[in-house]
Amino acid sequence: MFQLNINEYENLKSHFATSSWGGTRKLPYVFTEQGVAMLSSILNSEQAIKVNIHIIRPDSYRDY
Asked: Are 52 and 34 in contact (CB under 8 A)?
C-alpha cells in the first residue's frame, strides 16, 4: 500500500466523476496489484475470492 502523489491523484481523478462537495482533503492510499492479491487471499469472503481469481487471470488485466 502506498500514497499517491499529486500528479498520480490528478490523473486518476480525471478518469472518474467527482462529487460536488469537494472530495478528499488528503491524497489517497492505494494498493498495488500484488497487494490486492495478498489482501484478498487472507480475507475470507465470497467477494475476496472473486477478486483474487480475477487478478490471477492473465487476461483480466486488460479490463482496467
From this structure: no
